Amino acid sequence: MKVRFNKGIPGFDTLREFEIKNLEGNDRFKILQSEEKEISFVTVNPFDIYSEYEINLNDETIKELAIENAEDVLILSIITLGKTLETSTMNLKAPVVINIKNGLGKQFILKSESYETKHPLIRREQNVSNQ
């Protein structure tokens, strides 16, 4: 799937044209690859890891991406790879929002203080037993 970021991605403002590819051998992760430079990002749907994740797009973003239906929106979080998956993190503060109908995308920075740029990619359930 081809994606155009009319304003680029923060930190990569000059890059506009990307393609989303499946990560070979793992359909949960996607590669967001620039078509202009040898730059790519590993991404994941944040709802696959954090089912309680919430995002409310503002009217400006909905208009900018020409979103008509919620079903047409793909949300991805950029992953920062650590030495292991356990030390890898994902950016829940600034998800990538893509209108799959027209291929327009934007990295949307949430105002919420609930999310950070470095949430653990692998969730650890806390052991609450006293044993």
From TrEMBL:
<dbReference type="Pfam" id="PF02623">
    <property type="entry name" value="FliW"/>
</dbReference>
<dbReference type="GO" id="GO:0006417">
    <property type="term" value="P:regulation of translation"/>
</dbReference>
<comment type="subunit">
    <text>Interacts with translational regulator CsrA and flagellin(s).</text>
</comment>
<keyword id="KW-0810">Translation regulation</keyword>
<dbReference type="GO" id="GO:0044780">
    <property type="term" value="P:bacterial-type flagellum assembly"/>
</dbReference>
<dbReference type="GO" id="GO:0005737">
    <property type="term" value="C:cytoplasm"/>
</dbReference>
<keyword id="KW-0143">Chaperone</keyword>
<dbReference type="InterPro" id="IPR024046">
    <property type="entry name" value="Flagellar_assmbl_FliW_dom_sf"/>
</dbReference>
<keyword id="KW-0966">Cell projection</keyword>
<comment type="similarity">
    <text>Belongs to the FliW family.</text>
</comment>
<keyword id="KW-0282">Flagellum</keyword>
<keyword id="KW-1005">Bacterial flagellum biogenesis</keyword>
<protein>
    <recommendedName>
        <fullName>Flagellar assembly factor FliW</fullName>
    </recommendedName>
</protein>
<keyword id="KW-0969">Cilium</keyword>
<dbReference type="InterPro" id="IPR003775">
    <property type="entry name" value="Flagellar_assembly_factor_FliW"/>
</dbReference>
<comment type="function">
    <text>Acts as an anti-CsrA protein, binds CsrA and prevents it from repressing translation of its target genes, one of which is flagellin. Binds to flagellin and participates in the assembly of the flagellum.</text>
</comment>
<keyword id="KW-0963">Cytoplasm</keyword>
